């Protein structure tokens, strides 16, 4: 399946890759796939999903939980890392969506995500006037 995704919310590069993976898995499930091999050029995402890396960031933990839940919908699931230079088609699709705003095409499906697929949390930070940037004079 080939599709482009338009995020109607701010997302970091890693969050965007998780959103794309989760959407891909959901679409494959909806299409009746029993076995899924997904590819990503993100070493971080692949290693986190495979359990080779750990994260403490709350949003990444939620994404990992969502991916784990989606994995149970398939008889088999593999996530394989591919070199960025071999991911030219995905890069093209990621840039294509922004240029297709009002253009309709029969070949490429554009998925709009109005909000993240995981719950958002708000973290407040306090900025003290005396931090490491304060001059020592």
Automatic annotation (TrEMBL):
Membrane spanning stretches: none
Molecular function (Gene Ontology), one example: nucleic acid binding
Pfam family name, one: RVT_3
InterPro entries: RNaseH-like_sf, RNaseH_domain, RNaseH_sf
Domain RNase H type-1 as annotated: residue spans: 5-95
Gene3D superfamilies: Ribonuclease H-like superfamily/Ribonuclease H
PANTHER family in the cross-refs: RIBONUCLEASE H
Protein name, per record: RNase H type-1 domain-containing protein
């Amino acid at each position: 399946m080939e599709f482009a995704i338009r995020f109607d919310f701010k997302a970091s590069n890693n969050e965007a890759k998780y959103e794309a993976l989760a959407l891909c898995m959901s679409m494959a499930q909806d299409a009746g796939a029993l076995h899924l091999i997904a590819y990503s050029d993100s070493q971080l995402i692949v290693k986190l999903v495979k359990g080779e890396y750990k994260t403490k960031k709350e949003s990444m933990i939620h994404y990992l939980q969502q991916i784990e839940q989606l994995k149970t919908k398939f008889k088999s699931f593999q996530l394989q890392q591919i070199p960025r230079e071999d991911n030219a088609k995905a890069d093209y699709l990621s840039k294509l969506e922004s240029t297709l705003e009002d253009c309709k095409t029969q070949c490429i499906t554009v998925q709009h995500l109005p909000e993240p697929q995981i719950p958002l949390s708000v973290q407040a930070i306090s900025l003290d006037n005396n931090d490491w940037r304060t001059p020592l004079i």
